[in-house]
Amino acid sequence: xxxxxxxxxxxxxxxxxxxxxxxxxxxxxxxxxxxxxxxxxxxxxxxxxxxxxxxxxxxxxxxxxxxxxxxxxxxxxxxxxxxxxxxxxxxxxxxxxxxxxxxxxxxxxxxxxxxxxxxxxxxxxxxxxxxxxxxxxxxxxxxxxxxxxxxxxxxxxxxxxxxxxxxxxxxxxxxxxxxxxxxxxxxxxxxxxxxxxxxxxxxxxxxxxxxxxxxxxxxx
Length: 220
Ligand SMILES: C[S@@+](CC[C@H](N)C(=O)[O-])C[C@H]1O[C@@H](n2cnc3c(N)ncnc32)[C@H](O)[C@@H]1O
Hints:
The protein is about 35% helix and about 30% strand. It has helices at about 5-30, 35-45, 60-70, 80-90, 130-140, 185-195; strands at about 50-55, 70-80, 95-100, 110-120, 140-150, 165-170, 175-180, 200-205, 210-215. The radius of gyration is 17 Å and the shape is globular. S-adenosylmethionine binds next to helix 1 and helix 3.
């Protein structure tokens, strides 16, 4: 029996929150260290996230600032108070509402023109994929749009359960080990999975390890 079985799936998800709480400070100062990051920024600007925007798993707010360049207002949700503090310090409070919540339990109190998430989808376990996309649909106004960016980057030493497992191990700066979820999506496959759920989303690779997706849910 591995630790995931022993603690249940929620144990893994709580450990994932613990990891991001522990690394918030270092993560907040990290620049995306790969080619292709500029392409994500350009793709998001071209998408034009206008109107009321919901940002899921906002982290230290590196996307929040860019969203605010287009949006009338942004609601930014994250489970880590440390991440929210960094994001709030970065973008201020004007036109932004921060919500501390666990996205596997949170429900929206209103609907949005755009839902955005950066480097979050790969942390959603396979068995919660459909429920997560139902949440995204429930957050959108009719005709609303979605944009996400992500990567499939996993190093060999992180693969403690082997290449096929989506549970990996990462360490904080002090060496503490945490299990987190990292699903290594391949863009074309992700596009097909979303189509099966009724989403018309184009998923495009960049010249580096990143990819981005944009689209909408088919009516009905
Ligand atoms: C890889 S970071 C991405 C942060 C930000 N979107 C970015 O691109 O820089 C993942 C984020 O998910 C948040 N997170 C992890 N588990 C969560 C959960 N269950 N509910 C809400 N946020 C969660 C972490 O606190 C962290 O800020």
